[in-house]
Amino acid sequence: MNRLQDEKSPYLLQHADNPVNWYAWNDEAFEKATEENKPIFLSIGYSTCHWCHVMAHESFEDDNVAKLMNDVFVSIKVDREERPDIDNIYMTICQMMTGRGGWPLTIIMTPDKKPFFAGTYIPKEDRFGMMGLKNLILRIKTLWASEKNKLLDSADEITFALQNASNEAPGDKLTEKTLKETYNQLAIQFDKQNGGFSNAPKFPSPHNLVFLLRFWKRTGTPEALEMVEKTLQKMRQGGVYDHIGFGFHRYSTDSGWFVPHFEKMLYDQALISLAYLEVYQATMNNNYSRTIQEIFAYVLRDMKAPEGGFYSAEDADSEGEEGKFYIWSIQELRELLDEKDVELTTKIFNLVEDGNFLEEASKRKTGNNILHLKGSWEDLAERLNTSVQELKINVERIREILFKNREMRIHPHKDDKILTDWNGLMIAALARGSNVLCETLYLEAAEKAVKFILSHMRSNDGRLLHRYREGEAEITAFLTDYAFFIWGLLELYEATFDVFYLDTALELNKQLIEHYWDDYIGGFFFTADDGEKLITRRKELYDGAIPSGNSVAFLNLLRLSYLTGDHELEEKADILGRVFSERISGSSLAYTQFMVGVDFAVGPSYSLVVSGDTNREDTKEMLEKIRNQYIPNKVLIHRPTELYPPKIDRYANFIEWFDKVDDKATAYVCINKTCKPPTNDLKKMSEYLSAEWS
Question: Where are the strands (E) in 263-319, listed by range?
Answer without folding.
Answer: 264-265, 313-314, 317-318
